[in-house]
Amino acid sequence: MSAMILCDALVASMRANARATISTPRETRSFAELLLAADATAQALEQTLPGPRSRVLVTAPNSPEYVSLFLALLAGGHLPVLADPILARDEVDDLIRGCGIDAIVTSAPDTDLRCAVATEALALDHRHWLHAADHRGPRPTLAEDTELGRLTSGSTRTPACIEFSGRAVISAARTWAGAAGLSPSDTSLCYAGLYNGLAFNTTLIPSLLVGANIVLSPAPPTAGSLIRHVRAFDPTVLVAFPAAYELITAFPSERVGDDLRGLRLLLSSAAPLPAATAAHIESIARPICNYYGIAEVGPVTIRAEDDDEPDSLGAPLPGVAVESREIADGTKVIHVRTASMGTKYLNYPGELERQITPDGYFTTSDTGELTDGLLRLRGRTNQRLNIAGRKFGADSIRSAVLEFPGVLDCHVTQVTTPSRRDCVGAVIESRAALDITALREHLRGRIAEFKVPEVVLTTDCLPRSTSGKPRTADITAMLAETFTAPTTEDA
């Protein structure tokens, strides 16, 4: 069995900070209580999982017990693979086959996941149930020092499982804690799922290592709940996607300004922060700090409060190297090297390694440059969709659409509604009328709900260039017109 570096570090810190807490709006657990719960869960896992290094897909929402489950898996020498709880059945099936998953943890005893064997689920605690996975095929080999799996779908057709060593996870957390000045006196109010890099790298692991308090939201915030949570828990750090900060602008400034001024750090990441939102929050409280991180490499930059460059994502964090290098077509692409980089994709052998340069830099999909020590992004080399902080490629959606009867071709892209909300749009080439309701039902069985196109148009011929490639600009314009012109299509 490989060394349990991550587990040992977390347990030692939590014992030293036993009174620190993890809370939701309805419950609070101390680090000491979570360690005791982890011991009980570890015993249950030992009686159920096939052995050490079992691969367990965790698909559950935020809760204090999520942390004790995570610790129990690490303590048993197993591989927790942290995933979005709304993965579709087909996506779970792909992960089971591609990663050799042994079991799945869900938040309900009954599940419609076809991959689970027909045995009674094991209750690990009052929030989590373990389902044995019906996998009998070959399994890819784990790297010797792998202790954690986290998912990304940026450059692969289906979600890829990134293998991380314990040293890499700890490096990411300590780098962030140092840059953010995180200490035991802090309380972070986090509005991201613990499986997500924003929460995992800036809140969960750093807070456990330094003994800071955590407040988790089990669901996306509303404008009212966000302010209520700030008033109830008196946090010092707010971690959220841009959409949460936009909600705050709906409140009269005099009602929320005092509440926000009690926070020492407002952190945003995963999507562009609208300039008007940033300006409003700064006028009533303090500037929002943008955080730039990459799933495969961890935290990269943070924009300081005194950074007055509007297009800057801040300076590289200590120990992080960032370079802008030209590729064959002259485009300047961001390359990053950190001590927190993932080792490989478990279910896509060789794919991550191909993105690493001979001198150890990860080749990102972002274009831009580092000027005057500050990172500025200009675009992407291969377009990914970014819906409410969830980043994913369009290929998985397109593949699922092409399986539907009558579809000849499809182009999927991101569109923005008149209310400035981003959503998934698709233009489908078909010679016959399509039942859009049936199409969406078909997709919900194959991809996560947030990937199902909200805006759908059909056409007898996709706009194409002379080389036969879809004309993205024309397709985006077609989808945008659905918001201003009447249409007979189901959009």
Question: In terms of topology, how is this protein built?
Answer:
Blueprint lengths: L4 H12 L4 E4 L2 E4 H18 L6 E4 L5 H12 L3 E4 L6 H11 L3 E4 L15 E2 L5 E4 L13 E7 L7 E6 H15 L6 E4 L6 H14 L2 E4 L6 H11 L3 E4 L1 H7 L4 H9 L3 E5 L5 H10 L4 E6 L3 E5 L12 E2 L4 E6 L5 E6 L6 E2 L16 E10 L2 E7 L4 E3 L2 E3 L2 H8 L6 E8 L5 E8 L6 H9 L10 E5 L12 H10 L10
Helix pairs in contact: 1-5, 1-6, 2-3, 5-6
Offer a quick outline of the entry.
The chain contains 13 helices and 26 strands. The protein is of the alpha/beta class and 491 residues long. The protein has a nine-stranded mixed β-sheet, with helices on both faces.
Write structural notes for this entry:
This protein has 491 residues and is an alpha/beta fold. The protein contains 13 helices and 26 strands. The strands form five sheets. A nine-stranded mixed β-sheet has the order 2-1-11-10-12-13-14-15-16, sandwiched between helices. Strands 6-7-5-3-4-8-9-19 form an eight-stranded mixed β-sheet, with helices on both faces. Helix 1 (5-16) crosses helix 6 and helix 2 (31-48) packs across helix 3.
